[in-house]
Design goal:
Peroxisomal Thiolase, Chain A, domain 1; 13 strands; four-stranded mixed β-sheet; binds coenzyme A; alpha/beta; 11 helices; 2 domains; about 35% helix; about 325 residues; globular; five-stranded mixed β-sheet
Length: about 325
């Protein structure tokens, strides 16, 4: 038995924050942001929570799979910006979708979260624990951004993407690779909301608890790891690099994406880029990029897609699947 992506959906909030807008907030320029990252604008949620955005993306995914809410056996939501610590945003999402008795839980593997979630869902299906699992990547990163830090506030955005993973007799997911190295935990953090931060609540300093990243250290590891794990997924699948039709990388920095595409020997038109319009939405970059590519007709049934991500933890992961 295999698992296969049978439906996709995505949602972004309406408010656009351009590089020109950021020039008014921190000492930066459109030229610096564009040349160093490839990002031109990103979306910011004004009053929608992570589970609200996840709900809108999920409705589309369930509909495009030709299913109804009652057909969903489980909900896995990848996020590092859940609505609350308890309950999980997956439970809130299940309630919004009016699902009666699914299992539902969040996964936090930062930007690698959606691929980790697909890995878990694939195993659940292969073990008979559901036929249709809703897998979502959703983030409200604007809630943890330090708006005084030009190193990071220019990178992030909000949004949600969803996919339905269904049991199938033909190959969908062909291979999954997941890795983590907690030795590098300190170079990408957000302490707010964690028990250590709350335990010391009398001395809580909001700035020290917001999103923090040593960007150039992350960059060096990301360039190497994302390319390596993307190649590993293809090799593990038994197919060859020549069989790859499209590459959906995590959308953190166009320079990291270019390096990985080079290792995969892929021409530019085979690489899906959305970060110019949406920035880095962490766990939401890959499912939103997939849905946008499906809706535009670029990625079609039968195409072989490799996807790779990298993020806080540090974590990195890849997947090779046939649509
Ligand atoms: C964050 C990132 C874009 C920074 O680009 P970089 O080329 O590494 O730049 P550096 O951090 O070395 O900074 C270079 C200079 O630009 C400055 N700078 C940083 N942000 C700036 C901004 N928004 N505008 C203008 N200058 C900026 C720095 O202060 C530094 O100045 P200095 O040399 O005077 O100290 C890049 O490192 C990156 O993408 N990292 C990986 C992010 C990632 O993959 N995250 C994964 C999961 S979230």
């Amino acid at each position: 038995m295999y698992s296969k992506i049978t439906g996709t959906g995505s949602y972004f909030p309406d408010k656009v924050l351009t590089n020109a807008d950021l020039e008014k907030i921190v000492d930066t320029s459109d030229e610096w942001i564009t040349s160093r990252t490839g990002i031109k604008e990103r979306r910011i949620s004004e009053n929608e929570t992570t589970s609200d955005m996840a709900f809108k993306a999920s409705l589309e995914a369930i509909n495009s799979a030709g299913l109804e809410s009652k057909d969903i056996d489980g909900v896995i939501l990848a996020t590092c910006t859940p609505d609350y610590l308890i309950p999980s945003s997956a439970c809130l999402l299940a309630a919004k979708l009016n699902l009666k008795t699914p299992y539902a839980f969040d996964i936090n593997a930062a930007c690698s979260g959606f691929i980790y979630a697909l890995g878990v869902a694939d195993s659940l299906i292969k073990n008979g624990l559901g036929k249709n699992i809703l897998v979502v990547g959703a983030e409200r990163l604007s809630s943890i951004i330090d708006w005084t830090d030009r190193n990071t506030c220019i990178l992030l955005g909000d949004g949600a993407g969803a996919a339905v993973l269904s049991a199938s007799s033909e190959p969908g997911i062909r291979s999954i690779c997941m890795q983590a190295d907690g030795e590098y935990a300190e170079i990408l953090t957000c302490r707010a909301g964690g028990s250590n931060a709350l335990y010391d609540r009398d001395n809580f300093n909001i700035k020290e608890n917001l999103f923090f990243m040593k960007g150039n250290e992350v960059f060096k590891i990301a360039v190497r790891s994302m390319a390596e794990i993307a190649v590993e997924a293809v090799e593990k699948s038994g197919l060859a690099l020549e069989d790859v039709d499209y590459f959906i990388p995590h959308q953190a920095n166009v320079r990291i994406i270019d390096a990985a595409a080079k290792r995969l020997k892929l021409e530019h038109d085979k690489v899906i880029i959305t970060l110019d319009k949406f920035g880095n939405t962490s766990a939401a970059t890959i499912p939103t990029a997939l849905d946008i590519s499906v809706k535009s007709g670029k990625i079609k049934k039968g195409d072989n897609v490799v996807s790779a991500a990298f993020g806080g933890g540090l974590t990195w992961a890849s997947i090779f699947f046939t649509m």
